[in-house]
Amino acid sequence: MPVPLICDWCHEGRYQVRAADTYACQACGNQSTRAALPVGDHERLVTAAGILQILDVPDGHQVITPDRRCYAPHLGASLTLALRLHRARRTVFSRPEEAEAADLPALLDADESGPWVLSPLQLGALTRAMDVRSAALPSAARQHPEFDAEVRKAHADSQRLPTND
């Protein structure tokens, strides 16, 4: 879950986007740049509702950031369909661990607007679920092709990175 950055000058305001790579405190007006903000090795800066926030991203995990709220129901429907088919046909998921990613719909429902930090296992289950949904409902793949491509790219990227789990 992202956490808003508090102004280091007045210690009460949050940073808002002023211009590209420039942020200003909404309380005192103190300005800062992305390079000057305290971001750890496993953290990323994200903007949600115009407020600069810090997001913890563990090793091997990827960030999925939708640009429209309808993406969470789209992904939730993919997972629901795949999990329902998994109970009828055991071949939907290639590994038992992928089916155990059933807590992923709760993660997506908890914050429909993202961003989401997903593990390689969760991304694998989500990608497989999208494949199942596209096979069962071919028109579903055309609903959000850019977002589906982002999820698939994140999954591919997570497979290339070594993890420290």
Give a brief outline of the structure.
By secondary structure, this protein is α+β, with helices and mostly antiparallel strands. It has 5 helices and 8 strands; from the N terminus they run βββββββαααβαα. The model has no long low-confidence stretch (mean pLDDT 80).
Instruction: Give the helix level as a range of percent.
Output: 25-40%
Q: What is the string of SSEs from the N terminus onward?
A: EEEEEEEHHHEHH
Total number of strands: 8
Determine the N-to-C terminus distance: 20 Å
Provide an overview of this structure.
- This protein has 165 residues and is α+β, with helices and mostly antiparallel strands.
- The protein is built from five helices and eight strands, in the order βββββββαααβαα.
- A hairpin with a 5-residue loop joins β3 (22-25) and β4.
- The longest helix has 18 residues, at 71-88.
- The chain is elongated, with a radius of gyration of 18 Å.
Give the SSE layout.
Layout: E1 3-4, E2 15-19, E3 22-25, E4 31-33, E5 43-48, E6 51-56, E7 62-64, H1 71-88, H2 96-99, H3 104-110, E8 116-118, H4 120-136, H5 145-160
Antiparallel strand pairs: 1-6, 2-3, 3-4, 5-6, 7-8
Helix pairs in contact: 1-3, 1-4, 4-5
